[in-house]
Amino acid sequence: MTKEMFVQIRDCKLYAKLAGENNGKPTVVMDAGYGDSSKAWDSVLGDISMLSNVLLYDRAGLGKSETSSNPRTSFEIVKELKELLIEAKITPPYILVGHSFGGVNMRMYVTKYQNEVRGLVLVDSTPEDYKERFLPTMPQDFQQAYNKQFVYEGSYDEFMESLTQLKETRQKLNVPIIVLSAGKKAHYSKESQELWNEMQREILEISSDGELLIAENSAHYIQNDEPEVIVSAIKKLIDNS
After folding, report:
1. Whole-Å CA distances, 198 to 3, 17, 161, 178, 195
2. Residue-range domain boundaries for the chain
3. Residue 156: what pLDDT?
4. Which has the closest alpha carbon to 10: 47, 91, 65?
5. Would you call the peptide bond into 26 cis, given omega within 30 degrees of 0 as the criterion?
6. I want to staple 97 with a disulfide (CB 3.0 to 4.6 A). Which of 15, 30, 109, 237 is the partner?
């Protein structure tokens, strides 16, 4: 079963797609990376929808969703996602999956609504100290290209504000977390790759029940390079919920 919908929230309509069978298991809610629509999950949607209900959506201003007048920070995005879930009658519990910037949003969602969440999968998600600790280790041309990409949804400043919000709300969570780190990132030196994996490992400190998996053959889009790694992480959390 697949159902597509446009859901009216405060000041815009958001596009969402519900797939899978409601079998009494937690609904898997997925948030894509910066500038990406829900299509970024196409490579894994079929397999995940065999396990449970899956909700994909386009954040405001992306894909088929309308633009929102709210700032494009994680704080606002989480508020909009919460409204979407309520309006679409997608009731908890959830297993949240976030890729890259989507991981920042999903971490903030869990922090705010911990009792609704049975598990969190972070797919090569952006660590809160990315700007201070990681970016300076990269070559100048990488840093410039990184800064120039912020034209699809929020600005560079809004993105960095989201990381600050993540830092300020960081707390110990009582939710199992699986962190997936891309082990074969393009343009990364050996040192950068090791630092990246280490920073991914440190995200586990927010949970009393965390596990790091390094997707050795994946660049940033693990869902395209090794989709089975994501599917099995979600399956594990569903089975243990």
Report:
1. 39, 35, 23, 14, 5
2. 2-240
3. 95
4. 65
5. no
6. 30
Tokens of 73: 């920070």
2 alpha-carbon distance from chain centroid: 22
Sign of CA dihedral 199, 228, 232, 159: positive
Q: Which fold has domain 2-240?
A: Rossmann fold (3.40.50)
Q: Which of 167, 31, 11 is nearest to 94 (CA)?
A: 31
Distance, CA of 31 to chain centre: 5
Alpha-carbon Rg for the chain, nearest whole angstrom, is: 17
For residue range 71-92, list pLDDT tens digits in order: 999 999 999 999 999 999 999 9
pLDDT tens for each residue of 135-184 = 999 999 999 999 999 999 999 999 999 999 999 999 999 999 999 999 99
Separation between Cα atoms, residue 236 and residue 163, nearest integer Å: 28
Which residue carries 């343009």 as its tokens?
187
100: left (phi over 0), alpha (psi -120 to 50) or beta: left
**Helix locations, the chain, DSSP H:** 42-49, 74-87, 101-112, 140-148, 156-169, 190-203, 222-225, 227-240
Phi, psi (deg, nearest 5) at residue 52: -170, -175
> Using the 8-state DSSP alphabet, how is residue 44 labeled?
H
